Amino acid sequence: MKLAVLTERRNGETRVAATPETVKKYIGMGLEVAVETGAGVASGFTDAAYAEAGATMAADAATALAGAAIVLKVRAPLGTGEGAVDELSLIPRGALLIGTLGADAAGAATYANLGIEACSMELAPRITRAQSMDVLSSQANLAGYRAVIEGAGAYDKGFPMMMTAAGTVPAANAFIMGAGVAGLQAIATARRLGGRVSATDVRPAAKEEIKSLGASFVGYEDEESKAAQTAGGYAKQLSAEFYAKQAEVVATHIAKQDVVVCTALVQGRRAPILVTAAMVASMKPGSVIVDIASDAGGNCALTKPGELFVTDNGVKVLGYTNWAGRLPAAASALYARNLLTFLSTFWDKEAKAPKLPEDDDIVKGVTLTRGGAVVHPAMKPAA
Ligand code: NAD
Hints:
By secondary structure, the chain is of the alpha/beta class. It has 2 domains: 2-123 and 328-374, NAD(P)-binding Rossmann-like Domain (Rossmann fold), CATH 3.40.50.720; 140-326, Rossmann fold. The protein is globular, with a radius of gyration of 22 Å. It has helices spanning 20-28, 47-53, 61-65, 87-90, 105-113, 135-154, 181-192, 204-212, 223-226, 240-254, 277-282, 328-345, 361-366, and strands spanning 2-5, 32-36, 56-58, 70-75, 96-100, 117-120, 162-164, 167-169, 173-177, 196-200, 216-217, 259-262, 288-291, 308-310, 316-318, 347-348, 353-354, 369-370, 373-374. Helix content is 32%, strand content 17%. Helix 1 packs parallel to helix 12 (328-345) and helix 6 (135-154) packs antiparallel against helix 12 (328-345). The strands form 5 sheets. It has a 7-stranded mixed β-sheet with strand order 11-10-9-12-13-15-14, with helices on one face. The structure holds nicotinamide-adenine-dinucleotide (NAD). Nicotinamide-adenine-dinucleotide is lined by residues 126-128, 131, 134, 136-137, 140, 177-183, 200-203, 206, 233-235, 263-267, 272, 274. Residues 126-128, 131, 134, 136-137, 140, 177-183, 200-203, 206, 233-235, 263-267, 272, 274 line the site of nicotinamide-adenine-dinucleotide.
């Protein structure tokens, strides 16, 4: 059975879905692995390293995909008119496609029509058994770290307090907005750099987690926020009144901050605006806002997704997207292991083929299409 690994062609994508380490493991599982030439270059994995691991190098996507039963991707394959190569049309009917496909109902219908068995890993339930396949966590962790490193790089003063013969440089005030996986890693990183760290979130559990990492909690709490978490562990969309109260608390705090890292997300929606233009205007020149929620529109009203820009009052707003991809080697290594864990968990050793039980919670969570039909409840066409 052939497994194909493609070069990621979407703009700004630096990661790859398999590394030489995971290729070796797939071969050990009985698979034949084809890797498109250059697939790992942007993340530091050479063609020679893949070949040494046992992969066959394929000169182009068509060669890699010919006869493939399993296709590994980071992002959704390109469709007609999306780029120089129509990857979707090259995927054989019946192939199992695994990636972070970010599909909506129309996207899922396209996979179904092409007979592609699509699994979208960002939809995996956040349960203990799925932890080692949790692509959102592995990537968010790195994004949170990188955000603080880039924030510190853009900040013209130091992060730690430095007492020198020439005088004292004060510690930076760092404020982390959203204390999920990325935010907690950002808190830990900012603390390690020596910043004075505070953080906010709306989920009640987050307050204790913030404090346990040595940061102070800043936030607004009321009856609504006591129920701000969904059964899946995500933050709920809250009322306009709640957001207004939260903004009041944040506004006075943010004016004193040097580096603000925004990580707040509400599943399936545009990221909430937590830093208004007026708040940015209240910040000191030289302050930095790092918005890693930019892929979902951003938490700062002034964020320009994909760009760094400096406001009229001298605040730098880093709105880059794909923050995990800014650490491509680590992000690819973790992502590739997430996919390997998924496939090896649902693997029939005798048949040397995937076995995806329809009643398994993880399989149910990630499966978009099966046998030419959309099966994911959130993406089925309206009855
Ligand atoms: P996320 O990326 O969806 O959101 C990031 C953070 O933003 C969350 O903490 C959320 O509460 C916060 N947020 C949303 N609106 C906000 C607002 N208005 N102000 C401030 N903060 C706001 O979250 P995530 O990092 O993917 O984590 C989601 C949940 O899943 C968490 O509860 C996490 O502990 C849990 N989780 C569980 C597992 C597991 O295996 N059990 C694994 C990973 C994550």
